[in-house]
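ok new one. same drill as before - structure tokens go in, u give me an amino acid for every spot. 541 of them this time. try not to just spam alanines like last time pls lmao
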């Protein structure tokens, strides 16, 4: 929404916020002493002002140009002649304003409420004169063009007042207003393309200058645009923004004048597009209740259910029995949005609804979006659950449960059992889960083979069950020359270790069951007194 009420700040010529390189001119009498860098109001530098090379008359084309870094709203201009401590005698009696911004194809000329381009300036060299413009202009570059009814030498200093243009409107298109009895209800301040009149394109004028019209529209017509009913299909307007906007409301300033058959619009249709070419079928229709009493100008708000758009087209329909329709200003309640659109028909849900707005939409798009969202959510939950279960399985496979029974690792060697208590166990990279009871202990490496235990019965309970088996049958105790060696050797990830273990009598073991078979041998479960022990038989190498 355009709000320029406090837009009257000094823009930087006098305080040098505008740099010298931002100031240029068509020519200079002397670049060093009277160049454009000296055209700063209320400042004395060089010879006191900018002086063009040629003398000035009503047809002169000399100009002083200031380039702003961003689009800027200019509401007033201050001019001053060349004083130069009393030595100067040159000043401009009048000037014109030309301006440009990136959305314009050419330089535009400012016109006041009487459609005049010439603005009065100074009558002496010392005093500065500030002129407030009848309508603000939006410019990236502005030129001051001095003019005179008589040929004379002119020097100037200037200052500008306004503010940065913080809106994103690029332009609006409109059908030109009409005439009646020699009075113009045109959008004469429109600065876009006039070649296709009465259709105006690519510019900004009365409808977006932050100036609203007064009562008695036929007398105070300067701020109004008026259309006669002779048009078919009502009055069409199109507004284009420089970015996607989240539009929540449109405000139109209008008025009645019953004696001359002028009434506010009876209804409005609004179409939206994200690219300016494809317009949504989701059209807003607004019915404006007829007012048969008040002629006071008023704002009429068209509520919009948060529509995302870059272009908005409006069609205003004439009031019942009226011959004229007047509008002085159109504003949008909107803000920037970061939504990336997959299509142009997007509605952001809003809990507020209005009785006078009807939107034709079967809700299919929103329903499909909800279904898709929940399907995506379900798939994501399933994937996360599978990943979590796999991770939990790996952790359980590699770490013993804190509630597990304490196990003792035993190795048979001849007529005795050697054992030690393992404070912690873990899965060997090359064994099965059932073979995960071997302890990894730091020992001195040696070069030898595994000690081969003698195979026999653990006790009378297992008299007929061999405790350990070889690869091809019952273990042959004659395979090793020293089966009673007290040195037990095993391999852990390719390194060979050995240790001397305490001896345990074999007849104390009671066979229970086969636990499993790993790459290096078989593991059986036995009882030793009141504890469970694992007995592993190592394969011969």
């Amino acid at each position: 929404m355009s709000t320029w009420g406090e837009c009257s700040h000094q823009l930087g010529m006098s305080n040098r916020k505008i740099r010298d390189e931002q100031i240029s001119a068509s020519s200079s009498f002397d670049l060093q002493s009277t160049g454009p860098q000296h055209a700063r109001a209320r400042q004395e530098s060089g010879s006191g002002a900018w002086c063009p090379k040629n003398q000035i008359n009503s047809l002169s084309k000399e100009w002083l140009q200031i380039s702003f870094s961003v689009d800027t709203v200019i509401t007033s201009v201050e001019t001053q002649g060349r004083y130069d401590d009393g030595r100067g005698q040159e000043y401009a009696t009048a000037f014109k304003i030309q301006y440009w911004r990136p959305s314009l194809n050419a330089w535009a000329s400012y016109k006041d409420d009487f459609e005049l381009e010439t603005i009065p300036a100074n009558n002496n060299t010392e005093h500065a004169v500030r002129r407030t413009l009848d309508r603000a202009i939006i410019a990236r570059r502005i030129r001051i063009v001095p003019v005179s009814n008589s040929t004379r030498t002119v020097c100037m200093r200037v200052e500008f007042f306004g503010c940065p243009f913080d809106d994103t409107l690029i332009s609006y298109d409109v059908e030109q207003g009409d005439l009646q009895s020699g009075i113009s209800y045109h959008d004469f301040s429109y600065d876009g393309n006039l070649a296709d009149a009465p259709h105006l394109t690519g510019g900004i004028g009365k409808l977006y200058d932050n100036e609203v019209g007064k009562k008695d529209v036929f007398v105070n017509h300067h701020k109004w645009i008026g259309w006669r009913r002779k048009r078919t299909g009502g009055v069409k307007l199109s507004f284009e923004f420089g970015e996607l906007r989240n539009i929540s409301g449109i405000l139109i300033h209008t008025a009645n004048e019953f004696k001359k058959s002028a009434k506010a619009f009876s209804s409005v249709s609004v179409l939206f597009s994200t690219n300016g070419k494809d317009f949504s079928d989701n059209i807003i229709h607004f019915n404006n209740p007829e007012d048969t009493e008040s002629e006071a100008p008023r704002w009429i708000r068209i509520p919009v259910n948060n529509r995302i758009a870059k272009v908005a087209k409006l069609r205003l329909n004439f009031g019942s029995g009226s011959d004229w329709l007047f509008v002085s200003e159109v504003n949008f309640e909107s803000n920037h949005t970061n939504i990336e659109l997959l299509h142009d028909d997007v509605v952001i849900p809003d809990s507020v609804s209005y009785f006078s707005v009807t939107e034709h939409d079967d809700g299919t798009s929103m329903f499909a979006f909800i279904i898709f969202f929940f399907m995506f959510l379900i798939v994501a939950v399933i994937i996360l659950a599978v990943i979590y279960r796999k991770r939990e399985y790996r952790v359980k496979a590699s770490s013993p449960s804190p509630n597990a029974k304490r196990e003792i690792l035993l190795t048979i060697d001849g007529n005795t059992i050697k054992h030690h208590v393992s404070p912690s166990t873990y899965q060997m990279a090359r064994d099965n889960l059932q073979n995960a009871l071997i302890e990894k202990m730091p020992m001195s490496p040696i070069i030898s083979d595994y000690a081969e235990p003698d195979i026999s019965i653990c006790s009378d309970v297992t008299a007929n069950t061999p405790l350990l088996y070889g690869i091809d049958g019952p273990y042959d105790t004659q395979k090793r020359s020293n089966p009673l060696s007290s040195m037990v050797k095993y391999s852990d990830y390719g390194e060979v270790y050995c240790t001397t273990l305490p001896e345990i009598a074999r007849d104390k073991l009671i066979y229970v069951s086969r636990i499993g078979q790993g790459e290096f041998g078989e593991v059986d479960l036995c009882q030793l007194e009141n504890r469970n022990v694992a007995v592993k038989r190592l394969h011969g190498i």
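Residues 364-398 form the longest helix (35 residues). and btw The chain has two helices and 27 strands.
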